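Kindly inspect this chain:
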Amino acid sequence: QVQLVESGGGLVRAGGSLRLSCAASGRTFNTYHMGWFRRAPEKEREIVATITWSGGSTYYRDSVKGRFTISRDNAKNTVYLQMNSLTPEDTAVYYCAAALRDSSFDFWGQGTQVTVSS
């Protein structure tokens, strides 16, 4: 198993930036695909971005393309989400998740709050 701890959330004004980090325990971090998800108040959880175990392939939901960047450092067991040009619509609790290859995202962090003021 892998344990995940997010950090980097906070309050920022519209147009600002934040970088989220997700530190993973264990020696097998580089066998997991990683993802960032978010849940806004009274909305369903949605996928934000994913990155394969090697970092060779990424996915972004349309609303964050060109503004958010997912990356990982397997030597540091950490995945990042750089968020630029934030808008109030990005306000949510952001979760880090891990998936073994050919599996679903079964491992989750506790979440970090991101609040964007207008």
About this structure: The chain has a mean pLDDT of 96.
